[in-house]
Amino acid sequence: MNETIFRILAALTLFTGAGISIYFRRKADRDSGEKLSRSADGTPMMMVIRIFGLVLWLSPLVYLINPAWMAWSKLGLSDGARWFGVGIGSLCVAGIYWLFKSIGSGITPVSATRKEHKLSTHGIYHWVRHPLYTIGSSFIASFGLMADNWFIILLATLAFIAMAVRTPKEEANLIAKFGDEYREYMKRTGRFLPRLSRQVNK
User: Which domains does the chain carry?
Assistant: First the structure.
């Protein structure tokens, strides 16, 4: 019975978070009148990320279809640990909505920016420059806790590492577009988590 409950909660969390992402990404394409293809970023790292991303999304779906197919990577977590995953997943869903609402049409599937992109420094972006990477990887990790599956948690960890490797290129693009505005923004915000101490410009 417990497995069924966690499976239902994991499905609700996964599809709610994915639905929010899909809605705001399509809205950004419509509002900007510019649809950026993932093929526009043809770096080897992006190719790795795309292949890895396919595995990342297929693994939770395989669990939801039939948990027995993922039994080889079962952790044996307590119900308390799995409920902790439910809590983290719920916070991540709220965070996903917040970050997409904050960035609006500035969201893109590649490291390049849109032609009319404006630097987002409000909402969650007031404290963190790349909350999508932190919240996204935590979101998948929370699913791994709910599913009691070390492989899915490992995928979430590797996804974060891959995004962290890509981040310097993304920030270089933003510096090229916004110049000193982005450099000052970098001084007062954290890359993946809020800064413990912030430089305040006077």
Answer: 2-188 (1.20.120.1630)
